[in-house]
Specification:
Blueprint lengths: L8 E7 L2 E7 L9 H16 L5 E6 L10 H9 L4 H18 L5 E5 L2 E3 L1 H8 L2 E4 L4 E3 L13 H9 L1 H8 L4 E3 H6 L5 E2 L5 H13 L2 H15 L6 H19 L19
Parallel strand pairs: 2-3, 3-4, 4-6, 5-7, 6-9
Antiparallel strand pairs: 1-2, 7-8
Helix pairs in contact: 1-3, 2-3, 3-4, 4-5, 5-6, 9-10
Length: about 270
């Protein structure tokens, strides 16, 4: 029996070595069902295996990025939260975000409208976040009278530091897209009709050389992820990989001009 277009799902496409993972559940503001979480994990498997993919963009169909885990699944889990079924259900959603965060390629999320709770986790799991100016970035857990999950506080902390993570995750403060850029939570703002194109543009240079992009991403993870490394250790992490890249480039290739990225526009 053919799948109904209204069935919540995750779309996947690869073009010009850029993978696009798109939440397709606009009727529920991009809420993630268990099936969608499973699909995200499957698509992450494909990205990991396909070394011709050099970057990934996470977006959502419609005018809202992600309102979190589907509340119908949360309600079922709340009936008996200690059961193995409830734990597995919640873990499936959070596991999908971990898979995004562990992808070997650079990742960018295009956040239109808002990201709440587990939806904010998804955006924070990517390496770089683009937002619409009026997007609402909201922890959301406190307002629903539940404890944050999925490593929410750690994700906030590594993005904006302890004080702002506490303001959002413990006190329930929300940020607009413009405020998120000002506080360092997001990279830039852009309109909803342009944001996907800007995300693709942002990853395009990395996607031109997937092997190198994956190696740079691995070095960035080793150097920047907590607890981080001192500068001398970073020099050693980079030394061997840089020498490999120089040998691959060869002497004569230095006469070729590099691709220059466009200058980022001013933050709104």
């Amino acid at each position: 029996m053919p799948e109904s277009p209204a069935t919540p799902r995750v779309l996947f496409a690869v073009e010009n070595s850029i993978a696009q993972i798109t939440l397709d559940n606009p009727d529920r503001k991009g809420a993630i069902t268990i099936r969608m979480a499973t699909q995200i994990a499957e698509y992450c498997d494909r990205i990991e295996r396909d070394e011709s993919i050099g970057a990934a963009v996470v977006a959502s169909r419609g005018r809202y990025f992600c309102s979190g885990a589907d509340t119908r699944d949360l309600a079922i889990s709340s009936a008996d939260p200690a059961s193995s079924e409830a734990v597995a259900r919640v873990s499936a959603v959070y596991g999908a975000f971990v898979r995004i965060g562990n992808l070997p390629v650079p990742t960018v999320s295009a956040v239109v409208g808002g990201a709440v709770g587990a939806g904010l986790n998804l955006a924070l799991a990517t390496d770089v976040m683009l937002v619409t100016p009026d997007a609402v970035l909201d922890s959301g857990f406190l307002a629903r009278h539940i404890h944050p999950g999925g490593g929410h506080l750690a994700l906030l902390g590594r993005a904006v530091g302890r004080q702002q993570a506490l303001a959002m995750g413990v006190l329930g403060a929300a940020l607009s897209g413009t405020d998120a850029v000002r506080r360092g939570l997001a990279w830039d703002t852009t309109g909803p009709d342009e944001i996907l194109g800007k995300a693709i543009e942002l990853v395009s240079i990395a996607a031109q050389d997937p092997v190198l992009a994956r190696r740079i991403k691995n070095s960035a993870r080793l150097e920047l992820d907590p607890p981080g490394v001192p500068w001398p250790a970073a020099v050693e992490i980079e030394r061997g990989v840089q020498m490999w890249s120089m040998g691959r480039k060869g002497e004569t290739a230095w006469n070729t001009k590099p691709n220059k990225p466009s200058v980022a526009g001013g933050h709104a």
